[in-house]
Amino acid sequence: MQLERVLIPRRVRGFDDGRPDAQAYDVRLDGDRVAAVSPADGPAQGMLLSALVDAHVHLDKNYTVGQVGAAQGDLFAAITRMAQARAHWSGPDLRARMTRALEDAWQSGTRAMRTHLDWNERDAPLSLGVFEALRDAWAGRIELQCVSLTPLDLFAGASAGEDIAREVARAGGVMGAFVYRNADLEPKLRRVFELARQNGLALDFHVDEGLHADANGLALIAELAVRMGMAGQVSCSHCCSLSVQPEAQAQATLAGCARAGLHLVALPTTNLYLQGAWDRTPVERGITRLREAAGHGLRGCIATDNVADGFYPYGSYDLLETFGLGVQVAHLAPATDWLDAITTSPARAMGLAWDGRIAPGCPADLVHLQARDEFELLGPTGRRRTVIRAGRPL
Ligand SMILES: [Zn+2]
């Protein structure tokens, strides 16, 4: 199979031939690999990305907005409502909703996905077993990882944390916590890091998901990652309060994040929906500081987060759509220069075998877009695509 005259954005190139982004390539596929990439003459007739990587979703909660209602800006109301709804979830219900999400993501060109699973008590949630079965069933199509999403305060008490960490390790998962302006933040976070280290687990936090400037969990997590020897193994999502902190404080926090090799994940859909005012037109956007992070060499991810649940009532698992929103909300330009946020950066955050850079010899797991430039990339026509997996169009 041959793809003719495609643009390959520089941040997803695994080769450097000095040509600018605007010049096209012919790409030859052989079996399930890219065989050759060669400069082409003439105008581009499409754009080529590596298959997409979604570093943050909630497969257990999706498609429940009809039952729980939309939270209209109240994160903590959404948490309460979802907790009440969770009591009524069943295995078949979870399996059906998770499968629907995976089908959507698969058709959209996603090759790997990390989902958080609500984990609010010592015992593992019902969703874990369903997830594990689907992870096996989808192997080779979408590589799935799970994260335990636990209120940070649960780690303060006796042995619940040890049981959670052990079970996450058994399931081959990542340990996580929801962190927002907790009392005694430092000892609680330190406990989470200790448990992760003892059980050989990576960490993935929901942190500072709100617009109180005093929410500063991110800075502490970055510091602990270095101090506890876990640099490069920690992801932090949301980090909304960073956007409202004084510039100097935010820059110091991001410098710490860069030192810690922290993976920063922005979630534009849910943050736009939940953050900012609801009794008038919202002015604050809630998006974390992706551009300033890049200034520290920290290339962030953009991910889907919630879909059609109490936290975010709209959306889909088409990561390119979320990317387009992120480009506009955070003023990421040129957009083609930020495509690492849905390809190579999340691949690094998830520790995937392929870094997502296109080069001869790499997997032929690709997304061929109609877009011929950075502007068409943001439109529905430009986002039309052929998903190629193991060298064959879906
Ligand atoms: Zn989330």
Q: How would you name the CATH homologous superfamily of the largest domain?
A: Metal-dependent hydrolases
Distinct small-molecule ligands in the complex: zinc ion
Structural class: alpha/beta
CATH class value of the largest domain: Alpha Beta
**CATH fold title of the largest domain:** TIM Barrel
Helix content: 25-40%
Q: Could you say what the CATH architecture of the largest domain is?
A: Alpha-Beta Barrel
As residue ranges, the low-confidence spans are none
Integer tally of domains: 2
Describe this structure in words.
- By secondary structure, the protein is of the alpha/beta class.
- It has 2 domains: 2-50 and 356-393, Urease, subunit C, domain 1, CATH 2.30.40.10; 52-342, TIM Barrel, CATH 3.20.20.
- The protein is 32% helix and 20% strand.
- The protein is built from 12 helices and 15 strands.
- It has helices spanning 65-68, 75-86, 91-108, 126-137, 160-170, 185-199, 217-227, 247-259, 268-274, 290-295, 319-329, 344-350, and strands at residues 2-7, 24-30, 33-39, 47-50, 52-57, 110-118, 143-149, 174-179, 203-207, 234-238, 263-266, 301-302, 366-369, 385-389, 392-393.
- The strands form 3 sheets. An 8-stranded parallel beta sheet has the order 5-6-7-8-9-10-11-12, with helices on both faces. A 4-stranded antiparallel beta sheet has the order 4-13-14-15, with no helix packed on it. Strands 1-2-3 form a 3-stranded antiparallel beta sheet, with no helix packed on it.
- The longest helix has 18 residues, at 91-108.
- It binds zinc ion.
- Zinc ion binds next to loops.
